[in-house]
Amino acid sequence: MTHITPAVYGLWAIMSVLLSAFCGYHLWHYDRFRCLRWDNPRSGVFKRFMTYTYILSLPTLATFAIGNAVIKYQEGFIYFPGHGIIPKPYQLWAKHHIRSIFPLMMILSFAWALEMITHLEELCFWLFLTNIRSAQQDWFRSKFFYIWMIGSVCAITYMPVITALGRDDPLKCEAWTFLAGSLGSLTLTILFIPVLFIFPNFLRNLETQGVDQATVVRLTGFQELNRARVVFRLMFTSTFLILGVDGVRPHHHVNESMFWTDFLAMVGSFGCCISSALTLVVRPQSSWVAILFHCLSL
């Protein structure tokens, strides 16, 4: 936060706004926003909940990025002997800017928690899909659904709590928030990797069972998108993990370097927004009922 330059937050703000705009365009092109209606007969409560969870994570992320970009540009840089020109430390900020640090970090923690809920649901459902044996198996009665519920409660609880525990020290608050969020997201990303190796066999089994070619082609497209998402999620989680780990250490070797701080933050924000965009492309097409019907009803 203090170490990152205004341009990085400016880039993050632009990308998050573009992602939100892309979300709006995609939902309009998909079904003219009908999927957002609570009384939409085509989607159940669970699907609407996941849709709202994903969409809510976008404006919260954009609010965090835009808020910090405005503050950083208003505060600017200072000359610090021995270090040269650096972004102004938060201790020298205007009081109203200092008071905004914790609310912005809390907004980020909620956005990150919502993101983890979405990714955990994807992981659990794809595991359910690749392990299903008959059309009579119910997603809502499977162990994977209960794993998702428990994990979601943990995510929406521990992220804000960790942020709140560090509110007295803005630098520690930021470091622990990034560390906790990146560890959670990295864990989900690593757990998703085996799905990429299981899925080709799953597709071959579908072909041998006589599933129509259109369904196989569609699921193959999902597989390619999932591979790309894993790459961008690794970019997103690993870079922020490095910044978080360095932030909680006594000596901040990475965070004291303007180049490495900006480079890792830019790569992380790029990976975050691109992976979220790919999630948006996949989610509306892969509704639970449609996939199960096409894969198992024949």
Automatic annotation (TrEMBL):
Domain of life: Eukaryota
Protein name per the record: Uncharacterized protein
Originating organism: Thelephora ganbajun
